[in-house]
Design brief:
single chain, 337 residues, alpha+beta, six-stranded antiparallel sheet, 8 helices, elongated
Length: 337
């Protein structure tokens, strides 16, 4: 089934996709190396210029911290600059020490759980459908065997009546009636055989060598039957509290609630503290400079047009309300069932 059935392959790919949702939706947390080298070619007899910038950057998304190391050389006609710097930028307002990113990650984890549960449910539905097809095949097979036995018995009765007619013991009416019954059971046997073959082919269509197996595949054993008493009231209560369907609705509500909080904070200004260190070893206008400096500052940004954020917040609130209504609907369906 894993290689032949499209549904099974779809389940597998959906499950694999959940591993990458966080990296696709959250800020990149890998080390980023950047190298820029440019040359300026003068059109006169002036010397050419050259600039080289190398930087290494990493974002620690769980703490809202961004670190940058850089090396910058700049050679011009009248000066040669060489600066090494290290800078740390820490989010303090909207994404206070990574709180916003962590909440986004928690929401994604809930979505991943929902996706995995839905994949499991779909897989179980798929297996249940295959089991239903197998039971249909078993029923069709048993019907065919029963009608085959009836046809065989009717054929023996018809032969006995033929013998009795030769001895003048049976009437023509008995012969006609036995022939009619024989034809009826033959027709029913052929119809049940066609139904059995169709059910068998439907069951085996996703298996390897199905054409070969369809010729001689029969049920392996009788279907077990139990008359155990089932407490449907207890089963219904357990379903309302612990079923995967209800857990899916709860996780969707939890995720949607986190999305609402995240989108609310998107309207806040973004502020961060900047700490750094520079080492300047340059020559400017025949003057050698060797200066070290510590840097402290801040970065503040605010989005003046918040229409997009308002739309995203409205969408998140709608998803939360929809998830809550879906949970109520699922609970009502469980009660009525």
């Amino acid at each position: 089934l894993k290689n032949k059935d499209v549904e099974i392959r779809r389940f597998i790919h959906q499950q694999v996709q959940t591993r990458f949702n966080a990296d696709l939706s959250l800020p990149n947390s890998t080390w980023l190396f950047t190298l820029t080298n440019t040359h300026g070619l003068a059109t006169s007899n002036l010397p050419s210029t050259r600039r080289t910038v190398a930087s290494l950057n990493k974002n620690f998304r769980d703490t809202g911290t961004d670190i940058t190391l850089s090396y910058n050389t700049n050679t011009l006609a009248d000066r040669a600059e060489k600066v090494q710097s290290a800078q740390l930028e820490q989010s303090l307002i909207q994404n206070f020490f990574g709180a916003q990113t962590r909440k986004m990650n928690e929401s994604l984890m809930e979505k991943n759980k929902v996706t995995l549960w839905q994949v499991i449910e779909s897989y179980e539905d798929f297996i249940a459908n295959k089991a239903h097809q197998y039971l249909d095949f078993v029923l069709a097979y048993e019907n065919y065997k029963a009608f085959e036995d009836l046809y065989r018995e009717t054929y023996q009765i018809w032969k006995e009546i033929q013998v009795r007619k030769k001895k003048n013991v049976a009437l023509n009416f008995d012969i006609y009636r036995s022939q009619v019954e024989l034809l009826q059971y033959e027709r029913v046997k052929l119809e049940s055989q066609v139904q059995m073959q169709q059910a068998r082919q439907l069951l085996l269509e996703t298996l390897d060598n199905s054409k070969t197996m369809a010729q001689n595949f029969v049920p392996s054993s009788k279907i077990p039957y139990t008359n155990e008493n089932i407490d449907f009231q207890k089963v219904s209560k357990d379903f309302l509290e612990n079923s995967r369907t209800i857990k899916i609705q709860r996780s969707q509500i939890k995720s949607a609630d986190m999305d609402v909080d995240v989108n609310k904070k998107e309207n806040y200004p973004e502020g961060s503290l900047i700490l750094g260190y520079n080492n300047d070893e340059s020559r400017r206008f025949s003057t050698l400079i060797n200066r070290e400096e510590k840097i402290i500052g801040f970065n503040l940004s605010y989005q003046l047009d918040s229409s997009l954020n308002q739309a995203q917040l409205a969408q998140a609130r709608y998803n939360k309300t929809k998830a809550e209504l879906n949970k109520i609907s699922k609970q009502r369906q469980a009660k009525t069932q």
